Amino acid sequence: MKQAMIAEVQRFCIHDGPGIRTTVFFKGCPLSCAWCHNPETIKAAPEMLYFEQKCIGCGSCLAVCKKGAHRFEGGRHTVDVSACLSCDRMEECALSCPAQAMAVCGRRVESGELLEQVLLDREFYGKEGGVTCSGGEPLMQADFLGEFLSLCRDRGLNVCMDTSLQVKWSEILPLLPMIDLFLVDVKCMDPKRAVRYTGADGRLAAENLIRLSEAKKPVILRMPLAAGVNDAPEEMEARRRLMEKLNNVVRVDCFAVANHAASKYRAMGKEAPEWNRGADLREMEERMRRETGGKRWERPIFTERPEQDAGM
């Protein structure tokens, strides 16, 4: 069976598609969004995470580490997690910590094994629930998805694809019959702004979004807003023009970017970004709905996402 690199299988998710869902977070992403709330899924390889607040200072890790990644100075334990990337003993090092202050993010899994993990939750899915492939960018591992989604379809599972669409259409097309719903972010419409804040100009994603409309595949659009980045009037107008080309949008989630991933960034040895501090989030979201023409649609497709899950 084919294998994929995943970060986590999360159960009982209620914001990754309809109903109760099991969400598989794939590792590897072609983007590098400045506000990414799953930064540990960007790199397509295992990574060491260090949660300093859990450390009890026992020093067990020193006996295992061969890369000199650990420093105990001034009563504080720091870890150079970048040194762990070239180490084949990451798992052993993480297991040596009795406080679980270290964890390896990323493991290989076969399609059959992953299906078994998903099926553990099947009794909770009801009529609407199912499995959601997220990340990272799951479509970067399209070859694996072809096999895994076929298994899901054989079991009658509802499948959602949470994707940036930043992949070739030829990777998406063979998977269309096995996907019930796409969840797609519209991040930045201006190409230069998109490159600066996401790492790609967004043209490929927009083209693929239009192709999904032509293929009549249902889509939930997600519009994350960052004050001073993608909330300008010209951004709103560009989104409105894009939406007018689509006939497959079942809902639009409009929400302000939050700062829920701070602990993940710190665990990766990175500075946690901050967004929308001091911004009037309600006003920003309402302006998005108003200026993109949400009220002119035949049905009320703009919705609000719960506060606790408003990061993107």
UniProtKB/TrEMBL annotation:
Name used for this protein in its record: Glycyl-radical enzyme activating protein
Gene3D superfamilies noted in UniProt: Aldolase class I
Top-level division of the source organism's lineage: Bacteria
GO MF entries: 4 iron, 4 sulfur cluster binding; metal ion binding; oxidoreductase activity
NCBIfam families, per the entry: PFLE_PFLC (TIGR02494)
InterPro entries, alphabetized: 4Fe4S_Fe-S-bd, Aldolase_TIM, BssD/PflA/YjjW, Organic_radical-activating, Organic_radical_activase, Radical_activat_CS, rSAM, rSAM_sf
Domain Radical SAM core as annotated: residue spans: 15-295
Source species of the chain: Candidatus Eisenbergiella merdigallinarum
